[in-house]
Specification:
about 210 residues; alpha+beta; 5 helices; about 20% strand; disordered N terminus
Length: about 210
């Protein structure tokens, strides 16, 4: 049989064959590549982190491509699993916006960032009509920040200083809020609703919501 005849038979057979099955591995491959690229970005930034095993807790709660931040250059409290893209945006914000703003506007280096949590299997809170919608925290894609401690001992909190009588503190919070809006898809502050009176909600979701 000639090569041309064999090719014709093979092509005819292809028309009768069922479509190829896409394996779970091939579906996950793009996400895995994105995660590995994000890990490389964190390493290039000098951020120390530990990759976490993907975990599905059910009922819309999971984390995929998540990390535990070990050292971003400034201590941060109360954070657990964080999706890598969220962690990358957060580390960049703290190092590239919060720390410089503290020194330039408040005259002291940043000593610590006070986190209020990252992963939490829960729904959105404080928003009418959305009580049955899972929060970004449920997929480790959000971080709540309650305050900042300076090396001179001062503590600036969202709850007590969002409307501070000190204009320098107000400028500091306004500046880092504006910077966060350029780095995260959703940024919520006390200006959004009462549920965010004591923290910034930072979420890497491309929603374009800055309040």
């Amino acid at each position: 049989m000639t090569t041309a005849a064999m090719l014709a038979i093979a092509l005819a057979g292809c028309g009768r064959s069922p479509p190829a099955t896409i394996t779970p591995r091939s579906i996950a491959a793009p996400a895995e590549r994105e995660t590995q690229a994000c890990f490389a970005d964190l390493a290039a930034m000098g951020v120390r982190f530990s990759p976490m095993v993907d975990h599905d807790f059910g009922k819309g709660c999971s984390w995929v491509g998540a990390v535990q931040l070990v050292d971003i250059g400034v201590p941060v409290t109360n954070l657990t699993a964080i999706r890598c893209g969220e962690a990358r945006a957060f580390a960049g914000w703290v190092r590239g916006a919060v720390a410089p703003a503290a020194f330039q506007m408040l005259g002291s280096e940043l000593a610590r960032v006070e986190g209020m949590g990252s992963y939490a299997c829960r729904n959105v809170v404080g928003s009418a009509g959305n009580t049955n919608r899972r929060s970004g925290h449920a997929i480790a894609n959000a971080i709540d920040i309650g305050g900042f401690v300076l090396k001179d001992g001062r503590r600036v909190t969202i709850l007590h200083d969002w409307t501070s009588p000190d204009p320098a503190v107000q400028r500091f919070l306004a500046a880092i809020h504006a910077s966060a809006c350029k780095r995260f898809g959703t940024v919520l502050s006390p200006a959004y609703n009462a549920a965010h009176a004591n923290h910034f909600h930072l979420e890497d979701d491309r929603a374009g919501l800055c309040r």
